[in-house]
Design goal:
The protein is an alpha+beta fold. The protein contains 5 helices and 5 strands; from the N terminus they run βββαααββαα. Strands 1, 2, 3, 4 and 5 form a 5-stranded antiparallel beta sheet that branches. Strand 2 and strand 3 form a beta hairpin. The termini are far apart.
């Protein structure tokens, strides 16, 4: 068995559990950390958040607010605003949350990795966060601006001719 103390970094998954009784869950974010650093990533695009909303069948503004606050805190170097006042290591704080939180936002127990925090964040985000890509425009599709140019180029001269004006 691997010595967890020798791990370079750890990670946890942030999950949305709309009904703790059924225990159905969907991943909405990931956390990667070591003793000095912490990184966090949540779902990025509106279509992925829409999938979460459909899954939970409720307004998810509170989830987006939570994600925004967490991202802001992590940029400032801590997980929660009250962490700034005490020196509890990330490992202990996240483990405590994983064991105690029973509401609709839950965090998994930390797992170890030999990767750096930044590389680990990319890897776990790609593995655990399912981003739905918005459909791309088909090639050759006409944008509204292009459509407007076509109309003005082809239609206006004909209208002027009908009105007896000389087209330019």
């Amino acid at each position: 068995m691997c010595d967890v103390g020798a791990m370079a970094s750890r990670y946890s998954i942030i999950q949305y559990v709309p009904d703790p009784i059924t225990d159905e869950r969907i991943n909405i974010g990931v956390i990667a950390f070591d003793k000095q650093n912490i990184r966090i990533r949540f779902l990025k695009n509106w279509l992925s958040w829409k999938r979460v909303q459909i899954f939970g069948m409720e307004d998810i503004k509170f989830l987006k607010d939570f994600a925004h606050r967490m991202e802001k805190n992590v940029k400032e170097g801590y997980l929660f605003s009250e962490d700034n006042l005490n020196e509890v290591p990330y490992q202990e704080r996240i483990l405590k949350i994983a064991q105690e939180w029973i509401n609709s936002i839950q965090i998994t127990e930390p797992r170890g990795s030999l990767d750096s925090v930044d590389n680990l964040l990319e890897d776990i985000a790609n593995t655990y966060l399912r981003e739905i890509k918005p459909p791309s425009k088909p090639k050759g599709s006409i944008t509204s601006r292009r459509r407007q140019k076509i109309v003005s180029f082809n239609l206006y001269p004909r209208i002027k001719t009908k009105l007896g004006e000389k087209p330019q």
